[in-house]
Amino acid sequence: MADEPLVQEIQNLRGRIEQAKLPQELFQEIEKQFDRLTRMAKSEGYSIEYDRLAHYIDWVANLPWNQRSTENLDLTRAREVFDKNHYGLDEVKERILEYLAVLRLKTQQHKELERVHAPILCLVGLVGTGKTTFAYSIAEAIGRPFARIPFGGMGSARDLRGQSRQHPESEPGYIIKAIRRARVKNAVILLDEIDRVAEEARSDIMGVLVELLDPEQNNAFIDHYIDYPFDLSQVIFITTANNTTNIAVAVMDRLEPISMPSYTDEEKIHIGRDYLLPDAMAEAGIGQENLEIDDSLWPQIVRPLGFDAGIRTLQRTIQGISRKVAKKVVEGEKQTIHVTSENIDEYLPQ
Q1: Please, which pLDDT band fits residue 113 given cuts at 50, 70 and 90?
Q2: Is 145 a residue whose pLDDT tops 60?
Q3: Which residues form a coiled coil (predicted)?
Q4: CATH superfamily of 75-259
Q5: CA gyration radius for the chain?
Q6: 8-state DSSP, 69
Q7: Nearest 5°: phi and psi at 140?
C-alpha cells in the first residue's frame, strides 16, 4: 500500500516541476524519475534512495531556468548608490559607470538579453580596500539579485562544479547554489578572492573559471549533480583578488582588472566619522546622545596600531569603542561618554 505522505510529497514536487518550465529534454528525464519515486512509495515507502531522488528533483524544481530580474541601468542612480556606500574612489566609480554605460547601450541594441555579454570586472587591491562591498554596490545600483562565492582556501574544483549523484552525500557546487539563492538566471555573482585557492587545486579551479567566464562556454555550464546544462550567459560575474600573480593567464585574458587604491588617512577619517561610526553605534544600541568624540582624536583612532591599507582595522576599532560605551551606559556609569585625549586609551586596542 502506498505511503500517503510520500504520495502527497510526490504530487507537490510534480506541481513545482510543472511550474519551473524546464527544458523539454530535462522535463522528460524528470518524468522518468517521478515514475521511480512512485514505485518506491508504493513498494518500500521511505528509504535513503527515495530521499536522494526526491532531493535531486527538488533542486531541479528550485532553479530559475527561465526567471530573470528587471534591471535598472540608470547611471545617475548608480552614481548615487556608489556615493552613498563609498567615500572617494572616484576613478573606480567612473570606470564602473563606463562599464554600466556600455552594458546599457548593448542592451538597447540587443533587446534579447541573452545576446549581451558584459566584460568581467576584476577588482584588485589589498585587504580592506572595499573590493567586496563595491561588488554589492554594483548589484544594488543595477537592481539585480546578488550572490557571493568565497574562493579563499577552496580545495577542489568539485566545490564549484558539484559531485555526481552516484556518490553518497553528493550535492551541487557553489555556482548552482548561488543561482538558487539568487532565484534568477541573470544575477550578479561575486567570485571573491580568486587568487587565494589552495595551491594543489589551483589548476583545476582555474580551468572551471575559464569556462565560467567565457561567453562561448558558459551558456551550457554542467554541474555534475544537476547533470544538465544550465545557461549562465546572462549572469554578471565580478571577481576580486588581492593580486593577480596567482591567477592563470587564461583567466586573466577574460578579465578587466580595476585597481582598488589604498585609503589615505584623511579618507579614513571621513569614512570612520561619517560612515563607520553611525553603523557601529546602531549595532551597539547607542545613540548620538551617548557618545561624543573630539575631532582631534580621529588621526589616533585611524592609526591605533600603525598603518593599514584598508579600513577593516578601523572598523573593528570603532566597533570596539561603541561596545565599551554601551557597557558603561548599561552599567549606569554615565549616559553620555565624551572621548577626549585624556581617556582615549581606555577605548583603543592595546
Answers
A1: very low
A2: yes
A3: none
A4: P-loop containing nucleotide triphosphate hydrolases (3.40.50.300)
A5: 25
A6: P
A7: -65, -40
